[in-house]
Design goal:
Elements (H helix, E strand, L loop, with lengths): L1 H41 L3
Length: 45
Amino acid sequence: MIKSILAAVCTMLFVVGCNTMEGVGKDMEAAGDAIENSAKDNKNY
C-alpha cells in the first residue's frame, strides 16, 4: 500500500516537473527570439 502511494507521488512529481521544464524552455526560447530580433533591428550594415 505504501509503495503504491509512493509510486503515485513520484509519478505526479515527475509529470509536474516535466510541465515546469517545458514552460522554462518556452520562456527561454521567447527570450532568445527577442534578443535575435533586437540584434536584427540594430545592426548597422
